[in-house]
Design a protein that fits this description.
Elements lengths: L8 H18 L3 E2 L2 E4 L4 E4 L5 E2 L7 H14 L1 H19 L2 H12 L7 H16 L9 H11 L4 H16 L5 H10 L8 H25 L13 H26 L5 H18 L3 H15 L1 H19 L3 H9 L7 H15 L6 H19 L3 H15 L7 H9 L4 H29 L2
Antiparallel strand pairs: 1-4, 2-3
Helix pairs in contact: 1-13, 2-13, 3-11, 3-12, 3-13, 4-6, 4-10, 5-7, 5-9, 6-7, 7-9, 7-17, 8-16, 8-17, 9-19, 10-11, 11-12, 13-18, 15-16, 15-17, 15-19, 16-17, 17-19
């Protein structure tokens, strides 16, 4: 029996861009009226305001033009990927990463399996706190060194990082970019229903860790090793570079969580890391420059994927069919019983996340429509938010239009069909857990 095999990721992205172009000719153009929302600071749709507008089909030539536009729209993320890739290659060429990982594994000898739960919980926490995704890309080289040293396959690096963060974000009781925005739009107190969500967050993260650990153990190979060196000078330099790396990570976390850093500030931090690591690590000016360029070159594919994924939404917006899709999918929910309507909302958010890859953007687009509908049929607003969280949030694990996912899988050197083979059973299990949470929420009157 032949297994599902995806085309090359760039071919897949081009296929979605072409599909979006074709849909702009097939689907009627339409828009919702929008107004500024004081609580979220965003423009939100007005329920019942959908209306047709003159067709604006996107020609194939314009769709090609939209690819550079997508790259420009995602420029801050793309340059972060380039700069961070270059910086970590400089760090790697000093030998510090492997030196640090070997030191760490020496402390966990015989207990290497605990690395997966520890790293997964860390990233799940970051996902739950601030919806971490693109910020993970620069950290993948470190995780790849760690996993290879243990003997785990490269896919494990994507699973413990992006996978754990996406699960943490989807089930989070306080993620400001998902549940926070949705609760504000639903006029619910922030953190309300937090205890209920926390229970299912713990179950979801435990389920993800178990699946990741099972895969990693089954596919474990002989760990990679380096020839040992006893050069004291090199050891001291590597220790200093490692100390610099730890300081950088600390500043990175503080900047993201406390200072609200954008990708430009993150890029500047990693650029400083690369320059300082090359100097401290003894690479010299030329060696540092060559290592930096090598790292940027290795990240080109991942950077292109982010821009191509963004171009899909650019085409859909230009064709003015995003609102048409939302209106068409949400209208039938009004005639369903309460429980089926809630599960229908879960399916709606799952389907919408392919053309609308931003979780916060999806909340702004859908919650003003679904909250009045839930009031009309007697469905709790909290459950309406749950359906959004699980539908849109879990889709981050599988959708090819998620630029961060595609980039991280590419950095790991893993084919997307191999990722799908790993993730689909876990995704379906998490969706069942989400359905359980929705039905439980209805029964207990959440």
């Amino acid at each position: 029996m032949k297994t599902l095999r995806f085309p090359h990721p760039l071919v897949l992205m081009l296929g979605f861009i072409l599909l979006a172009c074709v849909l702009s000719y097939v689907l009627p153009a339409g828009v919702f009226e929008r107004h500024p929302d004081a609580a979220t600071g965003r423009d939100v749709v007005v329920a019942g305001s959908y209306h047709r507008v003159p067709a604006s089909p996107v020609s194939p030539l314009q769709a090609l033009v939209d690819i550079p536009k997508g790259l420009v729209d995602a420029a801050s993320v793309i340059f972060l990927v380039f700069v961070a890739g270059g910086a970590f290659t400089v760090v790697d060429h000093t030998g510090a990463l492997r030196h640090g990982v070997d030191w760490l594994l020496a402390r966990f000898r015989g207990r290497e399996a605990v690395v997966i739960p520890i790293v997964s919980v860390l990233f799940a926490t970051m996902g739950a706190l601030e919806n971490m995704q693109e910020e993970i890309i620069p950290l993948i080289p470190v995780l790849l060194v760690l996993m290879r040293r243990i003997g785990y396959p490269p896919l494990t690096a994507a699973a413990v990082s992006l996978g754990s963060a996406a699960v943490g974000a989807a089930f989070s009781p306080l993620n400001p970019f998902q549940v926070g925005v949705a609760q504000q739009l639903a006029q619910l107190p922030l953190l309300s229903g937090g205890g209920f969500r926390l229970v299912f967050l713990v179950l979801a993260v435990a389920f993800w860790i178990a699946g990741t650990l099972r895969y990693a153990t089954r596919h474990r190979v002989a760990p990679e090793t380096d020839e040992p060196t006893s050069e004291t000078a090199h050891g001291a330099r590597r220790s200093l570079v490692l100390a610099l790396l730890l300081v950088t990570f600390s500043v990175f976390g503080y900047g993201v969580l406390k200072l609200g850093w954008n990708f430009e500030q993150m890029g500047a931090l990693f650029l400083g890391l690369g320059l300082a690591a090359g100097f401290i690590g003894g690479l010299g000016l030329t060696g540092t420059a060559e290592s930096f360029i090598s790292g940027c070159r290795d990240m080109t594919f991942s950077a292109l994927l982010i821009g191509f994924a963004r171009a899909i939404f650019v085409v859909l917006e230009q064709g003015q069919i995003v609102d048409t899709v939302v209106n068409s999918l949400s209208a039938p929910l009004a005639g369903l019983p309460v429980t089926l309507s809630a599960l229908g909302m879960l399916g709606l958010h799952t389907a919408l996340h392919l053309p609308v890859p931003s979780v916060s953007g999806q909340a702004v687009l859908t919650m003003p429509l679904l909250v009045p509908l839930s009031d009309l049929i007697g469905l709790s607003r909290q459950v309406t938010v749950l359906a959004y969280q699980y539908g849109a949030g879990l889709c981050e694990l599988i959708t090819p239009t998620n630029g961060a996912l595609m980039a991280i899988v590419a950095v790991c050197g893993v084919r997307f069909d191999a990722w799908w083979k790993f993730v689909l059973p876990l995704y379906l299990g998490l969706v069942l857990l989400g359905i359980t949470a929705i039905i439980t929420g209805i029964l207990v009157g959440l």
